[in-house]
Amino acid sequence: MTCCTTSSDRPFQQKRRIRVLWALTAAFIAFHLVARSGLPVESLILTIFDQLGILLIAFGIIGRIWSIIYVGGLKNAELVTDGPYSVTRNPLYVSSLVAISGVCLVFGSLLAMAIFTLLAYLVFECTAKREARYLSHLFGERYEEYARRTPLFWPDFSKLDWGQARAFSPKALLVTSRDALFILAIIPLSEFVEYLHGIGLFSMAVTVP
């Protein structure tokens, strides 16, 4: 992806990432309309997928709120290295990926989960690498030392450091709450699409594993 090759002295334009994620959301909704899980509606496995998906969504939302409490209003202004930022340098992206995996699992297809989770991961990884170069430029050796002990993406909970209590940005928390509501809205949307499939409105829908 070209975003990984941009100049390290400028912060990554988050609007690009957001546009790509909106495109993935639209693609997932379109996929949901033309495809359906091959599992029977009353299948125990499908029920388990639903419950696991909701659990992953909950973990993702909690992770995003936890991250915002530590970094809200301080991004690119202060190097935050405690709390969720002590186990991964990108807890917001990790939490978002967990929530996305949950949304896909609610659909009931491991194939859909694998495809859309992988695509989202590639977007987040690309953004994280670009941001790492910018933060290295911004904070110098402090960031390099932080990067040596903290994974870029996948968390290492053995390194958890709760740090000190701090004030957080209400605006940042509000934005995260809005995003959480959008993610939660996917659940009833998924059920509605299943209803449309059930009444035969999308009778030509293909089944996927």
- The secondary-structure element order is HEHHHHHE
Strand order of the largest sheet: 1-2
Indicate the radius of gyration in whole angstroms: 19 Å
Number of helices: 6
Ends apart, CA distance between termini: 29 Å
Shape: elongated
Count of extended strands: 2
Membrane topology: Multi-pass membrane protein
Protein name: Protein-S-isoprenylcysteine O-methyltransferase Ste14
Transmembrane segments: 20-39, 51-72, 92-124
GO molecular function: methyltransferase activity
Question: Describe it for me?
Answer:
The chain has 209 residues and is mainly alpha-helical. It has one domain (41-162, 170-200). Helix content is 64%, strand content 3%. It has helices at residues 14-34, 44-71, 91-107, 110-139, 141-149, 170-198, and strands at residues 35-37, 206-208. The protein has a two-stranded parallel sheet. The longest helix has 30 residues, at 110-139.
List the helices and strands and how they pair.
Blueprint: H1 14-34, E1 35-37, H2 44-71, H3 91-107, H4 110-139, H5 141-149, H6 170-198, E2 206-208
Parallel strand pairs: 1-2
Helix pairs in contact: 1-4, 2-3, 2-6, 3-4, 3-6, 4-5
Keywords: Membrane, Methyltransferase, Transferase, Transmembrane, Transmembrane helix
Main location: membrane
Subcellular location: Endomembrane system
Quick overview:
The protein has 209 residues and is mainly alpha-helical. The protein has six helices and two strands. The protein has a two-stranded parallel sheet with strand order 1-2.
Which terms summarize this structure?
two-stranded parallel sheet, elongated, mainly alpha, 2 strands, 3% strand
